[in-house]
Structure formats: C-alpha cells, structure tokens
Queue: 2 jobs
Job 1
Amino acid sequence: MRDVVVLGAGLHRFGRFPDKSLPDLGREAIENALDDSGVPFKDIEVAYVGRVLAGMGAGLSVVSEMGRTGIPVINIEMACGSSTSAFREAYLSVATGVYDTALVVGFEKMQRGLIQIADQKSYQTVMGLAVMPASYALQARRYMADHGATAEMFGQVSVKSHRNGALNPYAQYQTAVTLDDVMNSRSIADPVTLLQCSPTTDGAAAVVICAASKAAQYKSGRLAHVAGWATGSGKYEPTGDSAEGEADTGEIGRLVAMAWERAGLGPEDVDVTQVHDAFAPGEIFSIEGLGLVPVGEGAQAVWDGRTEIDGDIPVNTDGGLLSRGHPIGATGCAMVTEIVRQLTGEAGPRQVKGGDAHVGLIQNAGIGGMNILVLTS
Amino acid sequence: MTAPEIPLPLPVPTPTTQKFWDGTKQHKILLPKTADGQVFFYPRVLAPGTLDEPVEWVEASGKGTVYSFTVDRRGTASAFRAKVPYVIVIVELEEGPRMTSNMVDCAIEDVKIGMPVEAVFEDVSEEITLVKFRPS
C-alpha cells in the first residue's frame, strides 16, 4: 500500500441555511478543500461522496458544481459515519495505486427534531424504545450506577464542547454554555438533556487526498498522512451490547486495535482525538473504548478537564457533534478536517500542544458500522 | 378539539419470532435456548456471542431486576409522543437475558436500578400481547 496524504480540507459553515441548496453547500466546501490542497479540480481523478438524506444522484449534482470532468462519482451511505466511509474508500483507491488524487465530500440538509431510523418494525421500535437519545441514556444511567459517575459529568462534556465551538468559525453553535445551562435545559431522556443532544444541521465538508509520492507538485510543508484505519459493522460479543444498556466500548476497542496495528502506534501516542459525541455520554464511552482512559474513568477524566484543549487528552477541539453540529453525511469529513488542522499546526485558538501535535485519532460511528482513522504528521 | 388518537405500531411476528408472540398471547415469556444451554432474547436465528442455533424454547419466570432505565420525555414517532413521559426499562431476567420494555404500575421517580420486577402482559389486540414490567 502506498503512503497517502491529506493535502487539503475545507467546510461550509455548519448551521441552518434554508435558502441554500445542497450544491451551494457542497461547492463551497469543495472549493475550500481544493484551495487548501493546491490541487486543481481537473487533476481530481475520483470523488467519493458521503450523504444520507438527499435523494438519488445527490453526489453528482454537488460534484458537478465544479465542472463535468467525467470522473467516477461514488455515493456512499453509512448514516452518521457516511463520509469517513467515503474517506476510507477514497484512501484505499489511492493507496492501492488505482488513482493518485481523490476528492471526498460529505454534505447534508436536515429537518428539525429527532431523526428517524429506517422504518423497521423491530421489537424495540414498536414499543417506543428505539429512541436514539434513550439508548445513550440507558447506557449512561447504568454507567452512573457501575462507576459512581454523576449526571453533571455527562453535562460537562457539553460545556467543554460548546467552549471549543465558540473558537470555531465553522461551528453551528459558537456560544459557550454553563453547566447550569446544560443541566437545566429540557430533559429528553433522563439523564440526557437537550443541550447534551447534537443538533440537526445543514453543512458540507470536503477533503482532498493524494499519493504522498505525487504531493510535492501541489503542496509542501507539514502534511497529514493516513497512518491507520479500521472499519467494522459490529459483532455479536458475549458482553458489551449497547442494545442491552451497556456502553458499547468493546466494538470501539476491537476496531481501534486494528487501526493501531496498521499504524504501528498506540493510545499513548495520541495528541488529539475526534469522537462521535452524538449525545454527551458518547464522548465518555468513546474515550474509554479507544483506550485513552481505563473503562470507568472517562467521566472523571472529563470532569477533571483532561479532554479540554489544554488537557492531556484533548477531544473534539472543534466543538464536536454537540456544538460544531451534526449534518450526518458531512460529520466524518469535518472530523478529518479538524485533525488535519491540528496536525499541521493550523488550528489557531483551538491548537493543542502548542502546535506540536503529530498523532490524531478519529472515531466516527454510524448505523451499520464504525470507522477509525489514525492520521500522523 | 382534541387531536385524533394515533394508533401505536404493533409487532409483526416473523417465522423467527412467531413462537415468542404465541407465548405472550398465553401470558408466558418463551425464550430461545441453544443445545449448550444458552438462553437469549430477542429471538433470532443465531445466538449472540456463540452464533449457535437455538434448538428449543423455554419458559422464563417473568421475574428479574432493573438493569437500567430512562424516562422518554420526547417520543420519536408521533404515536409515542402522546404517551410521554414513559419509562423505558432494561430488565435482566432471572434466566440471564436482558429485555427492553416499559415499566408500568410504578411512579417514574420510584424506578431504581436493581429493583425487583415481574412481567405483566398487555393484550393490545386479538393477535398481539406485549410484555411489560411492574415492581414485585
């Protein structure tokens, strides 16, 4: 497999843009990513598109905004993990030598309110149990009983995320909130309150990747390399079934171990992390599953400020899903974008470790699987 | 003027789950069991973890303890929105498997992890009986 670099990344701001179309959102993200990469669109050989709610052919309608160069445009869907799945396919196509340059795009326009999972008449659906925040809430409540955590510790995740989002001009919410604000916001599914739920969002994100051997003609300086990855679709395990109220750290652990093996690195090497905090408890379960803290110590780690930008395990420095926003098809590429900014020292007020960050970890979950990525610089 | 009541969705038994729903109609919880004695829920073609095939159905006592719970105050589908707040509970049955359900006959603030519960059967149509739990 060839060494692959992320040459550029860019976003359209996340938020609510009722007057903008998907091509409007996508075009701006693609232009920003291409500008950042130095790669002209005519040199892009393939495009992989992560999207969920848009109709047929949405990928082509967005990529066509840049011009019709005849390249393959591949639509990929894995719910909230769609654009890291698109990234993985793009990466494999370049690493295996089929293409030298690839564009990855993720975008979404969403309605307000709780999102609906595909209309399956499962046991849980028909009993009113298949409510996404309730699934996190059941795990959170059990976690509190098992590990002595408090509801405020979950709330603190959202306080931290909003503080980071206030430093991110692309975030949906750029206003800090207090712990009181979070705990006193409307209860959705105890102990999860409204401000512990990621919003629905319009937005787009794009990434340009390139064979490292071809990168010099486009860009020089510090570049982010794809060092490790893993993808899976969940596995029946004797323990750790999130559907049964346990934080599903086992599946994250199974996949991150594969990613570390490919990268030749481990959790002790990580400088900055992006995790899937669709709901606040998610950050705590994810950092445990990733091995950044021992199981049962994640809530305390958040409470102690260890996941803050200036903490020893900074997480979701751009505001995460909770504050940056969660346009489901775009989220994965936004995660990659933030890690690239951190690893190239371009994260501005959100920069961790004084710019001396060299290993970034990404965990992006979707219905139907999960993606882990390790980037290095 | 009140909004018309939206009917709650009901399970549609499949070949894999028919026996379970036949059981609830008789106010019994029937659980699939493998040759090695693994009892599990929900009914599926292969047992979780071992991927062994179930070979028989065994009747559960209907007793268990609360493993975790939450109070849904929002509802997802419109039919459930009329019911909020309601308690979603995960019950660990005496036989081992965990079953997601609703808590009934119990004030929301009285639900606690570890509390003993027992199954109650709610005949919601001629064909379908749901399993719910109440304090025991």
Job 2
Amino acid sequence: MKLPLSWLKDFVEIEHKPEKLAEELLLSGTKVEETAKSGEDYVFDLEITSNRADCLSIYGLSREVSAISNKTLRDFSTNPVSGENETPGFEINISNKSLMPYFGAVVLENLEIKPSSSQIKERLQKCGIRDLLNLIDITNYVMLETGQPMHAFDYDKVSGHVLNVRESTDGEKVTPIDGVVRTLKAGSIIIEDNEKLIDLAGIMGGKNSEVSEKTKRALLLVPIYDPVRIRKTSLHLGLRTEASNRFEKLLDNEGPAKALERAVELAENDCNARAFSKPVFRLPNEAKNSIEFDLNLIPKVLGLHLTPDQVSQILKSLGFQTVYLPLSETPTLRIDIPSWRRDIENPVDILEEIGRIYGYNALPTTLPSGTPPLRTEGRDLVSVIKHTLVDWGFLEAVGYTLVGKTDIENLGLDSANLAKVKQPMSQDFEYLRPTLLTGLLNSARGNQKNGFNYPYFEIGRIFVEKFNPENLLTNQPKILAGIYPTQDFYTLKGLLEDLLNRIKFNGSLVFRDGELEFCDSFQTATVTAGDSGLGKMGKLKTSVLNTFDLEGNWFYFEFFLDKIVSFSNTAVSFKPLPKYPSVSQDISILLPQNTTIEAILNVIDSANEILLVDRQISDIYTNQSLGTGKRSVSIKLTFQSPEKTLIEDEVNGLRKNIEKLLKDGLNCELRS
Amino acid sequence: MQSEIDKTSQKFESEIEKIHNLEDLENLRILYIGRKKGILNSLFDKLKTLPNQEKVVLGPLLNTLKNTIESKLKAKLNSLSAISGNKKIDISAPGKNSQLGYLNPLTIVLEDMKDIFHHLGFTFVDGPEVESDVYNFQKLRLHKDHPARDAQQTYYLDEDILLRTHTSSMQIRYMENNAPPIRIISPGRVFRRDQIDATHLPSFMQFEGLLVDKETTLGELIGTIKYFIRECFGRDIQVRVYGHHFPYTEPSIEVEMFHPKLNKWVEMGGAGIVHPEVLSGVGINPDEYHGWAFGFGWERLAMLKYGIDDIRLFYQGDKRFLEQF
C-alpha cells in the first residue's frame, strides 16, 4: 500500500521527519519497505499484514499515525446524500445474501465525464494507480482513502437497470475491462443485468458496462462481498487487483455508508453529478462487538505493568471505547470493538494492540524463569557420526530434496512409484529423492573438476514411495549415506565397521550378498544385525558413474539412521581387566574359495570354547600353486584364562580341537 | 686367570674407544658377552674348573668385569643413538598431513545453536518434512481459505499432503505428545515455491523454538531471542522487534538485528505468543499455560554470520567452500 504523506496530512498532523515516522510505523506493526521522494512529498510503500484490512486505506493509516504519535485524528466527515426522486431507479437482486451481505448504491445523473483534476490525478499516480476518467478515478480515490472499493456502471448500459448478483456456473465467460475473456468456475460472484454478465464482482468490472466519456448516468455500487469467494476466484484466474485485495479480507461492514457519501461529494464537485435519489443501503444491524478484557493479562503475558488508565488511553487512541468494571472479580475493561477492526476477536488481540502501541522494545526482557523440563535427548550420536567421518576425510554434503527424473533414471531407478510435487517450478526439482546418491555424485563431480577426490556423506531424509495418510510418518526415513573413492570393498567395509564401533554399536553385524540397482552385483552387500536390516553398500556401476561424469572407482553405502542408533549401547558395564596373559596361535587352512569366512568363523564359534577370547583372520592367500578354486586362510586364535596363565601344552590342545572342528566341518586341509 | 681378567679388561677399554657406530658396537658386545662364544662366557666356564679358594677370589672379580663391560656397552649405545638422532633436518619443511574432511557450515551453526540453547534447557527434536495440510496449516489457525496462505507458495503432493512450508508444524506435533513444561528447538527443511536465485531455493532450512509453561511472558521471548542473537553474533549486537502478524501467534513480532558489517538492520525471523486457540487445539488449557514460539532461517543465520552471499553454495559440496568453516 502506497502512502503519500501529503494525503496523510489531510487527517493527522505529522510532526516527525519521514525517517522517524517510518520507524515509528515499523515498530508498531506497519512496515515501510521503501520511501520515495515525489517533489516536495514523500511516498511510503508499506507492507500491510493480511489481518489489517483497515490499513489498506489512507484514513486507516492516519488513525495508526495518530495513535503512535499521539496526535488528533480528524473526523472523516461526510454529508448524507439526497435526490429528488422517490424511487432509486434500479433494482438489486441477490440470489444468496452471503454473496453480497451489505452494500450502498445510488444513481448519479447529469454527468460530465472527462479527465480528473490534478490533485486527484497526482494522488492516484503516487499510489501507483493509473488515472483514466474522473468518475472512475473517484471510485479508485475513495477506495484508497477509505479502504472501501466500489464500482461505477454506465447506467444506460445496464439493461433493465437491474443488478442480479449470483454465483457463476462452470464455464461461464466474462470480459472484464482489460478486454481479456475469462472462463469461470462455479462459485465466483458475478453480476448480470436482464441480458448479460456485466461484472466480475469484486475483481474487475465488465467491459460492456464500463463508464466512458459518453456516459451521462452512472450506477454507483459500494458492496461488501464474501471474502472467501473473492479469494478463490482471484487465485483461480490469477487475477489480483487493488479491489480484490481488499474484498478478500475482512472489511468494515459499515464502510459502504461513508464511502458512498464521499464518492458522491467528489462526483458532485468533479463530474457535475447529481444524485437521482436517496441511496439504497443495506447495512449491519447488529449490536457492537465488545470484549471483556482481564487487565491481569498484561503483566502475565506482556510482562508489563500499566494502570487501567494507561491501558484505556492506548485503546482510545486506536478508536476503542473502554469502560472500567471495578466490581468484577478481576480488574476488567469492557472494550467496544469498532466496526473497522474485524481482526479483533478475543483478549489476546487486545494484548497485541496494547503491546505494539506501547512499544515492544520498551518491554523489560529476561530469560525464561521457569524450571527447564527434564532432558530426553540421549547422547548426540549424529554429531559423533558426523565428526568421525569428517576426521576420516569425508566432506559433508547437503543435497536437494527435490530431484529431476533424469537423475533418478540415470541411477537405474523407476520414477513411476515415487512421490512428486504437483506443480514443480522446474523439471529438475520435481521428485522427492528416493536416495541421497544423486546429491553425493553431483557434489563429487563438482570437486573432481577442481582436482579434488574426496569421500562424501550426508544424513538426510529420503522418500521411499508415493505418500498417503497411512504412511505419512514412515515413508520419510532418515538415512546416512556416502560415497568413497576406492576399488577395495574391504576398505569401505572396515571403515563402516569402525564407524559403528564409534557409536558403540552393540549387535552382531553381518554382511551378506545383496543388491542395489546402481551397484555391481558381486560387490554389493546388505548389512544386518539380528532381524534388523540396517543398510547396504556396494561398488557403483561404471555406467552410472559415467552418466554422472565421475571418474575412478567409487563405493556407496547407506544406513537407516534410526536403526543403527537404536543399537548404540550407552549402558556400558565395566569388565575388569584380565589378570593373566593371553596366548595366541595361528592356524592355516586350505579350502575351496567359495567357502566363506563367515562359515569358517561360525565353525570356530560353534566350539563354544570359553578360553578362546578372540579369533582374527590374519591372512587370506590365493595363488595358482594352491590348486584351482582353493585359497588359504590363516586365523589367529587367542586363548586366555581368568584363573591362570595357560601353558603351551594346554594351548596346543585347545588349538588342535579347533583344527579338528574345521577339518571335519569344512572339508579343509590344515597347513602348518 | 687373574692376568687373563686384567688383560681382557684392558683390551675391552681400548677396543670400545674405537667404536663409532652401532653395528661395530653390536659386534663388540657379542665378542665379549655374547651368550655362546663371548670371551666372558669362556672365562666363566674356566672359572668352574678352578679350585674353590681361587673361585672365591676370582669369581667376584669376574662378575665385576662383566658388570663393567655391560654398563660401558650400554652407555656407548645411548651416546651413539643420541648422536645418530641428532642429524640436522630442515624444520621448516612440510609436515605429513592427512586429508581432513569438513562439516557443512549448516552443521557448525547447528552445533553452536545446540550449545546456546542447551544452556537454557531446550531440547532438540526433528519432524517430518512431508506433512499433512492439517498440521502445517489448519492446526495453526490457517484454515483452508485463509488469505495468509497463498497456494502458489506451497508444494502440494495431493489434496491434503504437502511439503511443509515452515517448521511450525513441529509445535503442534510436539505439544500433542508432550505435556508442559515444554522447551524445544526443531531445526529442519521447509519448502516454498519460489523462483530460484542467489537467495531462494525450492527448499531451505529453518529452526523453530517453542516454550510452554505455567508462566511466561513476551519479555521472556524477546529476552531469549536477544540472548541467542548476542551469543551467536556478539554481545554488543543491537536487536529490535516490531509488530507483525501470524495467525498462530498473538501478539506477533518480527526480529531484526543491526548487522555491523552491512551497517543496516536485517530481518532475523518471526516470533510471538502462541495463540490460545492453537493451545486448546492440542489439548493444553490456555488459561493455565502460556507459550511462545519463534522461527528463524538457518541458512540465513549462517549467511549473515559468515558473509556467505549465495544460498546454493550450501548444497553444492564444493571443497573450497566447506574448508573455509
């Protein structure tokens, strides 16, 4: 909303310099986004919040200025309109009262339509509205001044002199004054005469009934429309005007009265107009809205101490009438809410009025005085994971949630069952990412082009499939994923095991053959602990790396964050250090290549030998000399007793037991 | 035998003078006190064959010789090791660095915030990015046709499921599952349909704060925000608030700080007293409890703090960007 200070001065004295006034307006809730100089005058460009329709007017803003600078507000005085004729000369039929619950209307005759006077032109221009012809300009002028939009029809173009206000049906067409035909959906408010549609109500008048230089008589309509329908129509058509911006908000239902009188007065002066008759008004008949305000709320919620008088004064300056009720249980003010403040519904709205006029920056400020709640967060394992990876040389990526179809398909994934937004801004930001990989690859490529080869990780949400009310919370799990530049599966496997060690992972981690669409078959693993699927890792396919323009060998891993964290054992129970030394012996076995390490370890573990405190694979050796399809595996066995130092003979015996188990269970040969 | 002991001693003394490296020293050691063929070994063997009177005298002498030789060998070893370690090196040559990784500055800012807000008893919680219209709007008093919600700015997946436009939905989720007193911060991604440029992306990050207690005031809200901004940007920073409007808070305010480098007031975020209807909507009695909330831009905070000029940098993973923080 543009506010020329010269216009403001019609209603309130301005004491401060423009910068100071702008600051005062800002602090009280009306933000001045820009100040422009226009000759001797200044024009503020204001941001008006959607709850303050009353501030979409010069008079409403004058009221604000008078309240914040403690200056008297001049009355907005108008004179009642009268005309010679008994009947108004028109009929208004409203199919459903809610469409246009209140209005004022009058016919003006004897019109001389021509360009406006310079003052009106200048003021409209300063407010960013094009001047056209005097009567049209007056409707815009009064809209800016009072906040009440209105429309003038060429009376002689209104067939039957009747305005039928109804809802549109699907597909009805209207041509507003900009000349562009619009197709309506059902539910928009339209006005038609005996023959045709003449108004896209609340948004733009019809071209077929607009005022022109030839107009001799006009029908002035000052309406209140159903804000919801106006907004819906405006959104649907993508058409927003100064009028519709006001009509879609809660206007003063009594507004049409003064606005009509003001418009007629200006038309009498500028257009030589004469009212045909007294205006027809339909105005509210309800009792004034009032609120009982518990004064104790002020110290309780604002943290401020004011006397009832101080409070009354602030509210009066805004146009609220107050009555102090000393006999009520708690000190109470009965406050009459003026008709132009439809945003005031309950006591907290009054608190805001008091706070913003008093000045929020004058409130005493403290830190929360209550007792903090018990802390429910455990140890910050996400932080441990991030810091560990970064210390090991990873860069932390933060990827976009929305990705393009191309990136998804380049990974070999099918986009058909993925969640996507209905109106993407571009094709690159359409689907909700089903994996963190695309962001990781794109980041790595960027760095490679600059000569750096870094591993990356990200912790973020992925979106598994399309959403519905049932899977809303479960379909967006948090994932830890990363890519690592290596050709060696075991390098990454070791790193992941170390990482889980860092968060005190307490479960038996099992790596088995697995599959990922974008990884090579024989170098991909699923990672589980018990029944829980924790994640996967695998070597990225060269074809995928090529489409992402990434060179070299890269591995990928992903974990469900909540799952791995759930295995973190922070309830550590100290085990006393062993009293007696351990003894290690190595065994080597020759066995078929496709017998897994897992199988070997399972056999060893099945011995349930208490004195075997550790078994480590110390070497895996393949060579032609061993025979085809065979490999040699060396295992270091560590024995220890809590009661004594084991002697060589005992250890040999224990080792031989294990050797026998392996020989019997795995069809292997012992090598010395 | 006595003369053999003396001769051995003298010979050793002269030979050890000539030793200048560790290899020769080791050979000398083996020669004299090597287990199998050392000179002293054979002397001890010979001692065994002597009559007792001689053993009693020569034994201790031989032992003394052995100890002397051992300690002199040791001393020589130490001094040779020290010398070889004292070769001159170029101290200014580069150290062997490992390739360190870097956190995204958003994480660094988050950890700073955790530090600041943990101090005030706040807990950090996370919530869904895909939300229902009910939690993102309706329970925050933004009913279906409210002018404050502009459909062009929201990404919808279908009629009632959308990408959350603010972290305020977490206020509702948390309050529905936790009784007061409540102190939470919820950082996370939010989504708006905006033209993409240096300061706008389809998604960005916010963090939400919420406090609900039997007693609390707007003064505590502003005090908390001031405290946080000053801990983050400097204890002398000026902070001001002004009136604004959000459907879910009343009174509502906007917060600005005076940025010393940019030399102007910059917007930090919005805040306000939780609207009583929002409280009663989640089953908290607004006559018994009061609450306040705030929402700040997370990247914005990092951009203001570090002077970063393009929001896209957070998402590109460029090492030359990350290593600066």
